[in-house]
Amino acid sequence: MNSYKILVIEDEKNICNFMKMIFETNDYQVIMAQNGKNGLTMFFSHNPDLVILDLGLPDMDGIEIIRKIRAKSDTPIVVLSARTDESDKVEALDLGANDYVTKPFGTAELLARVRATLRNSRFQGTGKSVRESFSLYDMEIEYDARKVMIAGEEIKLTQTEYNIVQLLALHAGKVLTYAEIIKKVWGYSDYGSVKKLQVNMANIRKKFGEKPGEYKYILNELGVGYRMNDV
Amino acid sequence: MNKNIRRNILKTVLIPAVCLLVCIIIERYFAVDMVAPAIMALAVFLVSRVTEGYVYGIAASVLSVLALNFVFAFPYFAFNFSIPENIISALIMLIITIMTSTVMAQLKWQEKVRAESAKEKMRGNLLRAVSHDFRTPLTTIYGSSTTIIDNYDHLKKEQILQLTTGIREDAQWLMNMVENILSITRIDNGGVRLKKNSVVLEELINSVLVKFKKRYPNQKVTVSIPDEFISIPMDAVLIEQVIINILENAVQHAQGMTELSLTVHTESGKVVFEITDNGCGIPKERLKSIFKDYFEIQDAPVDHNKKSMGIGLAVCASIIKAHDGEISVENREEGGCTFRFTLDEEDSLSEQL
Predict the structure, then answer these.
(1) Total structural domains in chain A?
(2) Cα dihedral sign for B25, B28, B32, B35?
(3) Interface touch B229/A222, C-beta < 8 Å
(4) Of A126, A150, A170, which residue is a domain's last?
(5) Last residue of a domain, one of A76, A106, A126
(6) What is the pTM of this model?
(7) Which residues of B touch A220 (CB under 8 A)?
(8) Is CATH 3.40.30.10 what the domain over B197-352 is classified as, yes or no?
């Protein structure tokens, strides 16, 4: 039984209805707002654990709502985007949205995103230092020793490769944009950096033994960024 | 715009100047008279052809008349409009050249109008065809949901499940269709250039396979791609859709298929994608028109029991064309067919600089 409170800001009544249904059958509490203004009011009066935000609201741009919430709070935000354009997703993520789901979406996908986001943000709250290791399937990361093991065998990574893997593992389940990773790993970003990141990622995958279509550890969100899997 | 005007002015001056030079050379070395007016008329004709609007043609004709008078009419290398002969020939020349340039301009304008109305017609046709195709799944969705609402107490659980499964299937079909139409509008957006980014081949293939597996969990795809790091400039959303459309086409239409494969190799700077199945192949009469535009297919007799498949492959063709690539399909001797398309690999040297 979980008692997470979810605020859904969405103007389409039918979409609201089915979201309310699936969240309630999965033991979440749901509160709804039909426009941005109400959404913000409810956010600040009800203190929800997670916000689901439609980017295309009638009264204000969803991006603006992310900005207003982030100015005051770290509450996780999952964005619903009808736009297939990656740049909107990247903008929302870079402004502090935790994840996105593209319309039309399946209920399983939405629930998975919500679950991962909640778990991820709970860890963030306790502080990164508390976690000494990360495990996923047969992969183990020991942060202090800067060691990555798969099926008991150590994987030899370069410093940069390890830094990328660690960064993604610390935010497991969350998609990190190219710009975000580059800034945190290299400390700067310039024209060629995305290519540098992509080449490093290709090497990491080779060392992890990943095959296209069956990525187990690091998932790629084409045109947006990378995400450490979180099961 | 400014650059355009400058270019037009340049043409208006240069072409008559070159023609004048040719006239002088001919008169000097071949001692032929009376060629000059004809050549200068040609100059005006050329200017009208290669510039936009009336103005440049008329300007060129005035220039030509002046030049003819200056160089070839007595007194040579001086303007003289006092001799009646010169005035008359100048006037006639002016009339001929102005008429030429206006006729040219009109012709060009008509061509433009015709092209625009063809595009308009295409849009209309697409809209009509699409609305027609949308009606079938919408009927299912509307009918099935109404049935459930109106007869909720009398329906068995399995019946409700059956109806809702139908709703989901047809909604899925509508979603695919909408994706395809969105792609067309993205390309056909008044010639707006594609949003190209460097995409890693392996990541593209991964993304495609994940999406495809979600839709067809039971269909295995054998994949083979080069080991090295390959980067391709592309609009990833669109190219993903090309591959998914072709795979999906195989699942739906390659009867008897047991193997479906996706292989990629490079060939002198080009990346070649091949999607091969061992199904029934494509009938000869379909092969020719398989990539034709959606509305053209609609003109042909359509099997109304089946939802139209045409749009998927037609969209593929437009997307690849917009990327300056090539797409083709052929039946294999062993049975089944191979779809093949090419994209330009990223120039790795220029990228590293």
Answers:
(1) 2
(2) positive
(3) no
(4) A126
(5) A126
(6) 0.76
(7) 203, 206-207
(8) no
